[in-house]
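Predict the structure of Dihydroorotate dehydrogenase B (NAD(+)), electron transfer subunit.
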Amino acid sequence: MRHDVTIVSNRQIAKATMEMKVRCPGVEIAPGTFFHIKTSGLLRRPLSVANVEGDEITFLYKVIGEGTTELSGKRVGDTLDVLGPLGNGFPLAQHGKRVVLVGGGIGVPPLYYVRRRLHEMGIETIAILGFDSKESVFYEDAFRELGETIITTVDGSHGESGFVTGPLARIEADVLLSCGPEAMLKAVATSPIPERYLSIENRMGCGIGACFACVCQAPGGYVKVCSDGPVFNAEEVLL
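Done. Here is the predicted structure for Dihydroorotate dehydrogenase B (NAD(+)), electron transfer subunit.
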């Protein structure tokens, strides 16, 4: 579960957003799972998997604090101490169903990997991706290569003006897969789409379900985002 991975590339791809690729051979990774990355701070940083190509894993992260600032300074050839893959990912058994993927900001990355896998299985998908502004948009072309993609920006500088809930309201689908900030997840969780799965981003401690730092309220009590999730059926959690 613990790996020493080698950085292949680490570059800025949008406003305060970095793409890091690492080499980690011999690991099977399900879409929606994550890795816990060690930095010089007390706690590791959870990073979702944006893509897997052979033995290379792609992570995207926003530079917002000491840990991610440290990661942004890593160079090609540097080694990282990581735990993973951890958690439970998105369901892939969606044959015969139309799937809509809804992502917001740094919640977009795991949706690229799951969309690529669904595309390889011949499953129709449509993606709705929300960002703050044109400068914050990333992976638009990559998503468009896999099917219909709608971009929204809060300030209207690119794509449709507003939030992801606007275009979502006019989409007919059987399954919704979503990842993003809590306010967005609350909004999409009430969609009339029959099956809805949410990837929740909470602060984490251990990443393996031992410390209870990342609990989320559920109808019967609480669930641990790191080990019970991060992907949940919308009926399983209370946001």
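The mean pLDDT is 94.
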